[in-house]
């Protein structure tokens, strides 16, 4: 009998009612037009494109996800390269625009060796080069004649860009730069696409000319041969090894040994080094680049919405299918028989999941508002008006920090809310958590970023106190600080739970709480002489408080101001979004309760009302739970999750995916002959048929000593009941 | 030129001062005898054993960790089997006791296919079998003549054991049981060791005899042939596929098709089925098994201490080595030169890490106390006294929930506190997080467990109100509830920050806060008729509040009551532990601030004092940070972390581990010929030497359209600066 008999499950149905029926029942309860809510968020055009592109990808072997969860690191890199290649062909075949290509990448939902080529190499070449350099670098890059990456971070320096060690010394004799890595810590590290794929890198190196160090500047450097792809002489380059996630990307390291590059490699759109003399010419106003950072961060916020949307779609659908226990006080019936309660009916499950659904919508409104303000600001800056920039840039730092921290935490909460099966890769949530995680560190570490926001908040506070700042539509910070200073002993006016649904009450509360915190920190630093370092904990808190105000405000105002929501047909959508905005605000208030209690703004009686209102909102939203995640319109191809399948066939999908596990393709495990057989055949038991008969038992059973108490390995007792 | 040239780093030193020097400077600052603190926690005997065993393992190829972070799933399973086999030999060769074997497993720090054989199969056979069954199953298991697992959880049921679907029907005609899986959801699932290794399983199945269903009972079932290891007829068995972590274990599924087993397979120590008649005989007092659960949970608490110890050791050491920015207000000097500040000097970093160090010690004292009470209770139960049991069992549920949730959250906090490099598997924290994670779900889901604790707390509250419960040394719950009811309007007496160091003040505060929460929930349920389900959020909160009281109390009382700490030589140790206990308590109080403010127990002035005291404690503990993690005595072999190395050679270790990355064993990546070469050679540039010369540039550069605003993939902008 061959060993290569794949394991197949018997053809049995799950215990009823089936996931299909349960989800259908949920969908029947939805109070609004799910498809119309999708259109409101994405536009019909975009949804149609996504549908078309999904169909294309589903028939493309290079975009097949079937084996995604079983691959080794090498297989991941190899299949990623196939996807990269095929994508360049598909773009031509399908005549995809840049947007459509991005939709394809979104749906594929996995970074690859070429990702940084598109997202950092090309954009940098677009914005930081002269026309000559565009011809030399950008055009070949757009045609994939060269593949690039962006090499900034070093083994010893990440957050502190000014501390980078790699040098680029101008050599006037040959009109070249010499790139050099003086220490082990100066090795470039973490560079996506560099490990194995890239032929070129934008290298951030300290510009040294005429003996003077001008700090980090960008150079476009060839690193591998275009003939045979081997590293060029003077370069040590490779992959940095396995990571927590993101293993489909070849994050790499590179070291340079007195490596010469031509003068034209210095990206010279802004600052310049004059050929021959080596004279350094400073860049114009650095503020311009802050605009780009706002744009990047607005997109991270929009991205965090998709992260939340994916996680909540999976967790909500599975929670509607998965049943555990009977809620004796309120048993669920099906065909007049009591069934186990779907876990989504437990208040705790709702409390874990529905605020994350609300946050998804909150992120949408804030991302949209950030992009609107970005446009306004870009226009204004063109006319030399930098009024908008400071507030926008400061808020964008804290918002990047807050939304990505919230998103990653919700992904994990959603995963845990799926019980044991959340821990299976088939949930779609484990690898997703790992891959999303870098967002809390890159583009500015989330703790460090809060300092930027708070520095601005404190400065603005001082200006308001000094009468040097007046409220404006575009600067809500000044508005809430001014209101606070007018009445620093204000109290919340709520007298009954429903008062907490009043948008004005909510906004006043969040504004007051942020302002109070800022005032406290300003007092500690300005009056009591506390150092910045000693105040870092509170500094992070006021950034968070400010950004929570921004998120809540953008949600509430976004709903009020959007004309497309005011039609009678969209009344049900508008209603459910209003309920979500209230849940988002009040749940956040409850999480941050101490900061509302501390200034005496909220009383304990009001807190009881607030908590009651949160539970009541969960109850109100519950029937729409599945509809609200369906509206995210994420196709099964994108989710690639057994638990999150649109049709609710959770258990069928789990078993089908288990059948694919490579270990199940043989009946007897590799290692049996060497590791198991020698043990179990030490005493050969008599065998009756295929069964063991214990005929040679030893005479007595000896009790073993008690297990050691002082010390027990921490999963020594980790036992099976995983779900 | 061959492609198989492994990449090697140049022989350069990191930028100074080196990690070695920085850690040496830290160690010089330690105020206490590190080795003596280790002895206090582990005993000298245990430490000596660990050292001996570490030496043995480091020379054993089957226990080598060098390739751990690069392995595919199949390699993980295969190397795990080799370790399992070699361990059985080593135990004999080295004459290891059970404790010593556990130390070896602890040091190896990775579960394997045989883990559940030792931790569930054998213990179940020890406690649930008759003497006949011990001979039949336990003795061969101890000799590894059979390999077992524990099959309880099913695809559709985990938490709700009573909902299990697998049946075991007694067949009087043949005196057999017939095991059957009636539905797809009845498939056993998540069973460690079952996927590929086990020959036997303890199967929990609904006992049906004479037409009556008696619910889940344990059976010992052979599942694979002892001749060739193939699954026996009537059985479908395999691996459940890749998981978020724990991929060195073959968690499996199994389904039975009318599978017959002999009458003796029913584990009959407690309940019995009479042969022939099939009459069911009930088990004696079920309370006895609660004692075992307390023991298991006490060990999970002790285990969570090791999890925290590992994570904090890595993060603290690396934070002392890693330098970023110069703290202008207080620049760090080295040889009279300003150097970048080690990140551990930033208050935020201390706030993120030092409370986790304090929690590690807190878990130690609570684990120790739980084991002491377990012994007391076992003695008492033998004499028919069940007084201790209820409180102990209830607290153990909530403590398992709280400590594992805290541990997993701290592991991730520590990982993030290591910046970008925390995301590398070489940090030792990524895979560790993944492998520890099941602890929050198994042995009782952490949310569900809180209900057990709270049910007891509410019952006790009602008893105290009714005058039916009196305070005792062994029941602190009754004590704090009684105190609260005597003065439900109590206020915190602190008038200056240092007052918060008073142990009595701390304990009163935690007791009051727990009691207040319990009283509120009791009122909602008993007076206002709220359902249990609608109160689940608050129910989880009171369990947490109670368990935080227990953790704080055990730490404080443990220090006061331990005679071995009262010697003059141990004064410095006792002092630093007292400081840690204060930090643990006050940091917890700050995290849970709302619950101390809500009842008016703490004022906002007192809160300011509390916060100031926390910062001041961080400052006090800071010089001992490295000493306190060194005292955990975790060898480098155990940590297997580039960032946590005892010698501080962080960057050397990172590069050495990167050299081992399989992708770096060839110069040109697999897939280059098929995926990269066809792209970059579409236009063949003229080549001068090995460099590209752009001689065929296209005439003009066309600006591409703006990137789509409505929609951007969420790591489209995820950029390099990872650290």
From TrEMBL, chains A, B:
Main localization, broad class: other
Keywords: FAD, Fatty acid metabolism, Flavoprotein, Lipid metabolism, Oxidoreductase, Peroxisome
Catalysed transformations (reactions): a 2,3-saturated acyl-CoA + O2 = a (2E)-enoyl-CoA + H2O2
Location in the cell: Peroxisome
Pathway, per record: Lipid metabolism; peroxisomal fatty acid beta-oxidation
Superkingdom of source: Eukaryota
PANTHER family: ELECTRON TRANSPORT OXIDOREDUCTASE, PEROXISOMAL ACYL-COENZYME A OXIDASE 1
Family the UniProt entry places it in: Belongs to the acyl-CoA oxidase family.
Protein name in UniProt: Acyl-coenzyme A oxidase
Organism listed in the record: Phycomyces blakesleeanus
């Amino acid at each position: 009998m061959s060993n290569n008999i794949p394991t197949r499950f018997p053809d049995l149905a799950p215990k009823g009612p089936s996931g299909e029926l349960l989800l259908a029942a949920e969908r029947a309860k939805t109070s609004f037009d799910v498809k119309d809510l999708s259109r409101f968020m994405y536009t019909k055009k975009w949804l149609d494109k996504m549908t078309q592109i999904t169909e294309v990808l589903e028939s493309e072997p290079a975009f097949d996800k079937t084996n995604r969860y079983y691959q080794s690191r090498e297989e991941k890199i190899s299949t990623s390269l196939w996807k990269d290649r095929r994508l360049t062909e598909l773009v031509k075949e399908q005549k995809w625009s840049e947007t459509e290509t991005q939709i394809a990448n979104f749906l594929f939902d996995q970074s690859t060796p070429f990702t940084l080529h598109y997202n950092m190499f090309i954009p940098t070449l677009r914005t930081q080069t002269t026309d000559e350099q565009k011809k030399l670098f950008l055009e070949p890059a757009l045609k994939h004649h060269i593949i690039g990456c962006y090499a900034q971070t070093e083994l010893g320096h990440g957050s502190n860009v000014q501390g980078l060690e790699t040098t680029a010394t101008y050599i006037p004799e040959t009109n070249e730069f010499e790139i050099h890595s003086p220490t082990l810590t100066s090795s470039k590290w973490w560079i996506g696409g560099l490990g194995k794929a890239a032929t070129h890198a934008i290298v951030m190196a300290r510009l040294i000319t005429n003996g003077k160090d001008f700090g980090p500047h960008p150079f476009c450097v060839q690193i591998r041969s275009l003939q045979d792809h081997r590293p060029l002489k003077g370069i040590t380059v490779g992959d940095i090894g396995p990571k927590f996630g993101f293993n489909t990307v070849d994050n790499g390291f590179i070291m340079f040994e007195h490596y010469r590059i031509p003068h034209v490699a210095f990206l010279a759109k802004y600052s310049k080094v004059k050929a021959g003399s080596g004279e350094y010419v400073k860049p114009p106003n650095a503020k311009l680049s802050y605009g780009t950072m706002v744009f990047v961060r607005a997109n991270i916020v929009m991205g965090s919405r998709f992260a939340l949307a994916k996680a909540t779609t999976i967790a909500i659908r599975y929670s509607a299918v998965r049943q555990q226990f009977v809620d004796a006080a309120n048993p669920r019936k099906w065909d007049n028989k009591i069934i186990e309660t779907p876990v989504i009916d437990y208040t705790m499950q709702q409390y874990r999941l529905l605020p994350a659904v609300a946050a998804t919508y909150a992120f949408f409104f804030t991302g949209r508002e950030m992009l609107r303000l970005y446009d306004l600001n870009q226009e204004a800056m063109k006319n030399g008006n930098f009024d908008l920039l400071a507030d926008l840039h400061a808020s964008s730092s804290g918002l990047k920090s807050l939304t990505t921290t919230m998103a990653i935490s919700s992904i994990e909460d959603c995963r845990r809310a799926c019980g044991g099966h959340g821990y299976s890769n088939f949930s779609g949530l484990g690898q997703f958590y790992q891959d999303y995680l870098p967002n809390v560190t890159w583009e500015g570490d989330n703790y460090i970023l809060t300092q930027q926001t708070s520095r601005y908040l404190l400065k603005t506070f001082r200006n308001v106190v000094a009468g040097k700042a007046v409220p404006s539509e575009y600067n809500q910070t000044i508005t809430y600080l001014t209101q606070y200073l007018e009445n620093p002993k204000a109290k919340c006016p709520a007298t009954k739970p429903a008062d907490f649904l009043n948008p004005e009450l909510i906004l006043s509360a969040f504004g007051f709480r942020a302002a109070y915190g800022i005032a406290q920190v300003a007092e500690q630093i300005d009056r009591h002489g506390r150092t910045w370092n000693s105040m870092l904990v509170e500094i992070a808190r006021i950034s968070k408080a400010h950004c929570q105000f921004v998120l809540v405000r953008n949600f509430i105002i976004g709903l009020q101001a959007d004309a497309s929501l005011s039609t009678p047909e969209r009344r049900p959508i508008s209603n459910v979004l209003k309920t979500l905005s209230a849940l988002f605000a009040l749940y956040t208030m409850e999480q941050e309760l101490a900061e509302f209690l501390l200034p005496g703004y909220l009383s304990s009686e009001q807190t009881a009302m607030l908590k009651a209102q949160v539970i009541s909102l969960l109850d109100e939203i519950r029937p729409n739970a599945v509809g609200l995640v369906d509206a995210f319109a994420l196709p099964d191809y994108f989710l690639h999750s057994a638990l999150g399948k649109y049709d609710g066939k959770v258990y069928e999908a789990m078993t089908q995916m288990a059948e694919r596990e490579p270990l199940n393709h043989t009946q007897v495990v590799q290692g049996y002959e060497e590791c198991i057989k020698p043990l179990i055949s030490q005493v050969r038991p008599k065998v009756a048929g295929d069964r063991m008969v214990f005929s040679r038992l030893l005479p007595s059973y000896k009790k073993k000593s008690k297990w050691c108490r002082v010390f027990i390995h921490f999963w020594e007792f980790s036992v099976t009941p995983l779900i």
